[in-house]
Amino acid sequence: MLISSSAALWFAPFVLPICFYVCFTDMRGLKIYNYTVVVLFLVFALVGLIALPLDAYMWRYMHLVVVLVAGIALNAGGAMGAGDAKFAAAAAPFIHVGDLRFLLALFAANLLAAFVTHRIGKLSPLRRLAPDWHSWQSGKRFPMGLALGGTLAIYLIMGIFFGR
To answer: What is the Cα–Cα distance from 164 to 162, expressed in whole angstroms?
Structure first.
């Protein structure tokens, strides 16, 4: 992995609670709140100044722009929710561009695992622990925040241990 271990270590304590909150709120209400996305962005804006060299820090904002434009296009086509697109854009600056191929494979695996786990949970007695969650009755809709938040969390945790 090309993310530095020190950068991942700086980001993780602030980002992991946000990722878990996104997973929870998206499963509970099929919604990723704007304030969560803003807080994630502010974490990068503040902690990134410490965790990254200035040139890398500035270039990472381009990641946000590119992912936001792609997310808007996917949202317009009905392939992704607006909250998912905004969260992905706010998460993009945390990713080292050299890790993109790894991140896409990680996201694909995490998406599949999250989907299967969600569907099994929906049909199992575990559903009684949270019977009023909207994601259980959402039909074909899936709480993508579960996969997006999980992917960012796993990426940063792996970056701590396997980063350069």
So the answer is: 7
Among the listed residues 45, 100, 22, 42, the one whose alpha carbon sits nearest the alpha carbon of residue 67: 100
Q: Does residue 80 contact residue 144 with C-beta atoms inside 8 Å?
A: yes
Q: What's the structural domain count of the chain?
A: 1
Domain that holds residue 22: 5-162
Residue-wise pLDDT for 90-124, tens only, equals 999 999 999 999 999 999 999 999 999 888 888 88
Residue with tokens 């080292």, as numbered in its chain: 96
Q: How many CB atoms lie within 10 A of CB 71?
A: 22
Record the pTM. 0.93
Helices (H), 52-95: 54-76, 82-91
